[in-house]
Amino acid sequence: MKALLLEGAPDALRRACEAGRLEVVEVRSIPDGRARLAREAFALVDGRITRPCALDEELRQRVDAFFDRLEGQPASGLYDAVMREVERPLISGALARARGVRSAAAEALGIDRGTLARRMRALGLDEP
Question: Hey, what's the signal peptide range on this chain (predicted)?
Fold first, then answer.
């Protein structure tokens, strides 16, 4: 049985896990913890890993984790990569909530209907 903890978890929590004969698995960030949690079963999970957080905080954590993984190597194309990852579910979600009505989805997103159509084509979301 294993426990999933963030780096810097309180020593008392770590000792309690060890006293309960749980193997402590430590991760550097919340996104890393969530990725590990998706792949493995844990008897105990640090609450900070499972607690929902605001979108801006989630993005900041993921960008920080991305830069940490680069280990000093130069990054390029990060802006476009993030925008692609965010824009697709954003547009898909707005369309789903608007029940496929593009004008309603565009209004919810605060963009012109033509802009929505253009972005949908660029992302391969336009259906014939």
Answer: none
The H or E element containing residue 108 is: helix 102-109
* C-alpha dihedral (16, 17, 18, 21), degrees to nearest 10: 120
DSSP state of 22: P
Q: Provide the pLDDT for residue 127.
A: 64
Q: CA-to-CA distance for 14 and 10, rounded, in angstroms?
A: 7
Reported pTM = 0.54
Tell me the per-residue pLDDT of 75-84, one tens digit each, with 9 for 90 and over: 888 888 778 8
Q: What is the pLDDT of residues 88-107, one digit of tens each?
A: 999 999 999 999 999 999 99
Nearest to 28 by CA among 6, 49, 2, 60: 6
Count of domains forming the chain:
2
Taking CA 37 as the corner, what is the angle to CA 36 and CA 39, rounded to the nearest 5 degrees?
65
Query: In which domain, by residue range, is 105 found?
Result: 78-123
